């Protein structure tokens, strides 16, 4: 399962994630060395160089990580964000360059620890929300909290015994 | 104008990105093999601990409150690459001076716009990478480095300082600055200048350039011009003992051939090792990078780099070339046309100081002397017959590169099993 929390925001707001899956296309076998696919006709004696005529195989990394220099892979620990679709052990892709917006799942530094929360509203005030009712929302006015990054995807593996 | 960017306490800052619990605490980073401090957080500096001190010499009181970590060159190298990439995306051409210092071409911006642009750039780097940086802007590299020093030390500047060459504040600052605190002015040069009653940076700025050239050579004359705001220094001019040495070249024609790249990296590594020996230093790590032509957006782009620690601090070409070749094999990808390759010698320290610090066994001392002899002969031959007269052959495949580390941190950026952990809360 591959969630994009920003776009799944409406669904996760009420603690429920939509089960809609759209088929985007077939993934390539390995995208480490994307090979150009030649499109169009090849005329003998005239090699085609124009970039417009070269199709590249889809690169998942490029698609998921628009700003690689500002993005980090992290590991989710604990089950308190299951309400947002993030499970223990999931691979998180965190983009540090984004300005956090209402509804974003973010990583913040809390008590010297990198912690995952959802940015939302509580009593009309901006607050850090947890996916777990056991954790109280933290109102942001006055609280010194530093955003570490915005979680743009989490990768959840369904086969735990290895691929 | 020229910008100079310096990452604050770079190695410590790299760890703090992933370990926020280290903030506000004294943190020291040890070299991977000999246990000397190669980086200190501000808190550790405030405790009066000097750079380069062997860890075992720390007082028990300091030791108790300090977090000591082993060097993690893969992390430092990757974070450095990210800092440069972020700057490249937000400003003009970036010239990498060392693993934690860059020069930026800021020509074409008005003085008013410079302050804002530099502040934005600083914020962007800090946000995207987590590394705090200081930026100095001035008409010359020497003055830009002076400006960075001000930006770093005086909090009111908020990490950015723009210096105009003839502004009274600039002159006042140069008047307070000792001449040996300038870029490229060694202590011994300072003693000689002292005899000419040139003590402060302002004194040197006012000195007669021809006179300085006659007595000290062209490099110091250039410093005089640079202090007056004339941009004359090229990076290779600086004769000072450097902490990092970069050797790189753009190929006449881009190549995807691994043998070509091996040859380029071998010669860069060897030239770098020679420079390390000439300034009587030893290197603790090396970085190798490749780059595809940046202006050819029609070709697939790749800018890999890799930093490897050396098995011991060394000036031995054989070890350095071997490590560089190994790094190349790890970053090379088939199918790309590379236009540039380079090797950087990282974390250089005095060879002589090191021998006192290290608890050497007879055997390594013997080996070092043998190596020194061989390298001496090699350098002499190359001086006499021209660079490349004597070169090293292939690499031993069975080299052992295991580090002797005790305080290793997780490999945050280089191992799927050791990614930074985020607590779900």
From TrEMBL, chain A:
GO molecular function, one term: DNA binding
GO annotation, biological process: DNA repair; regulation of DNA-templated transcription; SOS response
Matches recorded under InterPro entries: LexA-like (IPR039418), LexA/Signal_pep-like_sf (IPR036286), LexA_repressor (IPR050077), Peptidase_S24_LexA (IPR006197), Peptidase_S24_S26A/B/C (IPR015927)
Annotated TM spans: none
CDD domains linked: S24_LexA-like
Domain of life: Bacteria
Domain Peptidase S24/S26A/S26B/S26C, chain residue ranges per copy: 36-152
Pfam families per the UniProt record, alphabetical: Peptidase_S24
Keyword set, alphabetical order: Autocatalytic cleavage, DNA damage, DNA repair, Hydrolase, SOS response
NCBIfam families according to UniProt: PRK10276.1 (NF007621)
Family affiliation: Belongs to the peptidase S24 family.
Protein name: SOS response UmuD protein. Serine peptidase. MEROPS family S24
From TrEMBL, chain B:
Domain UmuC: from-to ranges: 2-186
Gene Ontology molecular function: any one: DNA-directed DNA polymerase activity
InterPro entries noted in UniProt: DNA/RNA_pol_sf, DNA_pol_Y-fam_lit_finger_sf, DNA_pol_Y-fam_little_finger, DNA_polymerase-Y, DUF4113, Rev_trsase/Diguanyl_cyclase, UmuC
Record bears the keyword DNA repair: yes
Alphabetical list of SUPFAM superfamilies matching this protein: DNA/RNA polymerases
Any Pfam family: IMS
Keyword Transmembrane helix: no
Membrane spanning residue stretches: none
Gene Ontology cellular component terms for the protein in this record: cytosol
GO biological process: DNA repair; error-prone translesion synthesis; SOS response
Keywords of the record: DNA damage, DNA repair, SOS mutagenesis, SOS response
Family classification: Belongs to the DNA polymerase type-Y family.
Name of this protein: DNA polymerase V
